[in-house]
Structures are given as structure tokens and as C-alpha cells.
Design a protein that fits this description.
Blueprint lengths: L41 H14 L5 E3 L4 H5 L18 E5 L3 H13 L4 E5 L4 E5 L8 E4 L7
Parallel strand pairs: 3-5
Antiparallel strand pairs: 1-2, 2-4, 3-4
Helix pairs in contact: 1-3
């Protein structure tokens, strides 16, 4: 069922610790390097909550807000214009494990109103963002790395 017309449930606006919505916590979106960057877009989290409600299954955030240093790490592969960057915080990467879950996840994300969705088949994540500076609607896949 597509619940795109439901409103996300927010527990508060200026939370420094604790939940952002009934299923997502601020720590899930913080930069993993320990710098404590984590100013995530309420619009992004709200749409993820609507997708979670529609999906009826957990959504695991694998990457949220990134500081410039972490984004520049070659292991991360972030671009200089990444929507993950602190100060923007309009992107998240979500884990998927099998094609059935991927199908349901993409359907729920579209129903929630996401208009920019990228799929990485090698690393098993889906990128979503609400960055108004980027072209949309877009459904894209990440290029495969050459295996030399």
C-alpha cells in the first residue's frame, strides 16, 4: 500500500540526542568518522519515515551526513558536490540484501515522494536524496568498478 499522503511522525525539532521520528534516530545519520556532523534534513527523514511505514520493514541507513574529510576518503568515493555533505544533509544510503527487498524498497521510496534514487548493485545500497539543486526525477545506477 502506498502511504505517500500520510504525514511523518516527528517527536521534536531541535533534538540533540534521541529519535527524529518513530523509527529513525539522529545517530543513524551522523558522520561515521566521529566528528559528530549530523545536521540531517527533516524533509529527508520525514520521507524515509513515510517509506518505512509503507514498507512495513526496517530501513537501515548505511550513510547519512558526511564531513568534507570523510567524504573525500577514497574508500567512501564521495563527490565534491555530494548531497551527503554537512550543511546540506539531504541524502542517505540504505542497505538492501536481496532483489525482493530491493523491489519493495524502491516502490516504498517512490510512494514516499523520493524523486532521486540511485542503486549500487556492487555494494548493495540505494541512495536517496531531496537535494533541490540536483536534477529530478532521476533513477540511476552506480557504475561498476573494473576488476583488474
Amino acid at each position: 500500500m502506498c502511504l505517500s499522503r500520510t504525514r511523518p511522525f516527528f517527536l521534536g525539532e531541535n533534538l540533540s540526542v534521541g529519535d527524529l521520528t518513530k523509527n529513525f534516530s539522529k545517530h543513524e545519520f551522523e558522520c561515521p568518522c566521529g566528528c559528530e556532523c549530523g545536521n540531517v534534513s527533516p524533509r529527508l527523514v520525514g520521507k524515509l519515515q513515510v517509506a518505512r511505514d509503507s514498507l512495513g520493514k526496517p530501513i537501515t541507513i548505511t550513510s547519512g551526513v558526511r564531513c568534507v574529510e570523510h567524504n573525500a576518503d577514497p574508500k567512501v568515493g564521495g563527490s565534491a558536490t555530494s548531497s551527503h555533505l554537512a550543511g546540506n544533509g539531504t541524502a542517505a544510503d540504505v542497505a538492501w540484501s536481496d532483489s525482493a527487498y530491493l523491489y519493495e524498497l524502491i516502490a516504498a521510496l517512490i510512494c514516499a515522494g523520493f524523486r532521486r534514487i540511485g542503486i549500487n548493485y556492487e555494494k548493495h545500497f540505494v541512495h536517496v536524496d531531496v537535494d533541490l539543486a540536483k536534477p529530478s526525477p532521476r533513477l540511476f545506477k552506480y557504475p561498476q568498478k573494473s576488476k583488474n
